[in-house]
UniProtKB/TrEMBL annotation:
Its cofactor is Fe(2+). This is TauD/TfdA-like domain-containing protein. Belongs to the TfdA dioxygenase family. Residues 41-325 form the TauD/TfdA-like domain. It comes from Emericellopsis cladophorae. The lineage of its organism: Eukaryota, Fungi, Dikarya, Ascomycota, Pezizomycotina. GO terms for cellular component: cytoplasm. Residues 1-22 are annotated as: Disordered. Pfam families: TauD.
Amino acid sequence: MPSATIDHAQDSIVGGHPDSRPRLAKPLTYAGTLDSFEQFDVTPVIGREYSGLHLRDLLKGSDEQMRDLALTISQRGVVFLRGQGDATPMEMKDFMLRLTEASGCPASSDLHVHPLTEEGSELGDQVSVISSAKQKKGGGLTHQLSDVSRFASTGWHSDITFEKVPSDYAMLKIHTLPPTGGDTLWASGYEIYDRLSPPMKAFLETLTATHDASFFHEEAERLGNPLRKEKRGSPLNQGGDLRAVHPLIRTNPVTGWKSVYVNKGFTKRINDITKDESDVLLAYLFNLVTQNHDAQVRFKWSAGDLAIWDNRSTFHCATYDYNADRAGDRVCSLGEAPYLDLNSKSRREALGL
């Protein structure tokens, strides 16, 4: 597997792909269009919740407002919008296309089609149904990890990092909930990077890691649905090889900040070092995510709530502490092929913290 290589067209850029570059020449700048809405930061590090901000109004709003929202999501990691129960799957898809466009995604990037999405799905190929009923049948990461660990923290991941062009933003609306339980947690990849020592940061910035979802082949066979091998939202995401190599540290082009980019769900190996070394480093990085509750935010859902997050610089984990039904709809947009700009800053450095 390749190590991190520098693109000599711009000597500070490591990784990425010439057919999947962000269209931003520099990070976005906030214009203040969301200041009139009631809002609060859920924790100092991650999460912001708005009141009175509705998906349909945002769809009718200006491009400048959509850019401000994209920047806010990318800076805060995840944004919560309460009371969006009337938002339809089509509106969610339209919104995500506008959001990713406003944030400068490559022209070749579209909404993602999950490899396990059933053809002819009622909500369309680009909407993933998140359902406790599917989980009980052994779906997704829950099945893959169920024979490995009983730690709830095993489920931490970033969406679809096994793709050559993974997700930039994701939106989830929960419409069916148990009486209690079913919270979701997010953690900040920016903050995890900031907690590394300078020598460790410098070392990790020279490395790549392999992300692998080959277990989806077994799951597709078990579910009786063929794996989706046609284009899954990007020309680089097609075929049956559900593996990708990405920089261990990546730059978010919307903020210009560095983030750790490995996750328990899909990252299997750090390349160009021994397996023992890889196992130790991955365990350490995973522990930074799961054992630092002050780098996390926990969201208690109400029916109709929406969360929108940036997969380039966050991790998330569902909480399976319920027996009643829990269900929702998720839409993922695709960003750029992951890269590291060696001249980019950390979150704390950029904010003067």
